[in-house]
């Protein structure tokens, strides 16, 4: 018998004028994280600093949360105070913040990143990552 995964929604606060590549990566990371944690991601809402679009997205999120009785909202962090206040008005909602993602930095002394270069980074928790070919 298959277990039923609890439903969740995602909420991402993008920087103004973020590229579609950055937005897409954030959506993929959020979906992968929710899957690893055992949730079924129903929808991802995105905020970009435009008051009208942000209000519409938060209203749609609130409506979906109430309709589907969702209890967990997953976010990579960096939410505005207005977004957090909007979520706080929803009874029984728990905001789950994803752990930090790696920050990619070139190795000192090397110009740019080319194939074969080692990429290093540090997560927000202070763990050092290293990868290379």
The overall strand count is: 6
Rg to the nearest angstrom?
17 Å
The CATH architecture of the largest domain is: 3-Layer(aba) Sandwich
CATH-assigned homologous superfamily of the largest domain: Response regulator
How much helix is in the residues? Answer: 25-40%
Mean pLDDT, to the nearest integer, reads 76
By DSSP (H or I, 4+ residues per run), the number of helices equals 3
Q: What's the structural domain tally?
A: 2
CATH class of the largest domain: Alpha Beta
Bulk shape: globular
Summarize the structure.
With 133 residues, this protein is an alpha/beta fold. The chain has helices at 20-36, 51-68, 81-88, and strands spanning 7-13, 40-47, 72-75, 94-97, 119-122, 128-131.
What topology does this entry show?
Layout: E1 7-13, H1 20-36, E2 40-47, H2 51-68, E3 72-75, H3 81-88, E4 94-97, E5 119-122, E6 128-131
Parallel strand pairs: 1-2, 1-3, 3-4
Antiparallel strand pairs: 5-6
Descriptors for this entry?
single chain; 133 residues; alpha/beta; Rossmann fold; 2 domains; four-stranded parallel β-sheet; two-stranded antiparallel sheet; 6 strands; globular
Structure in words:
The chain has 133 residues and is α/β, with parallel strands linked by helices. It folds into two domains: 91 residues, Response regulator (Rossmann fold, 3-Layer(aba) Sandwich), CATH 3.40.50; 34 residues, no CATH class. Helix content is 32%, strand content 23%. Strands 2-1-3-4 form a four-stranded parallel β-sheet, with helices on both faces. A two-stranded antiparallel sheet has the order 5-6. Strand 5 and strand 6 form a beta hairpin. It is globular and about 45 Å long. The N and C termini lie far apart (42 Å). The C terminus is likely disordered.
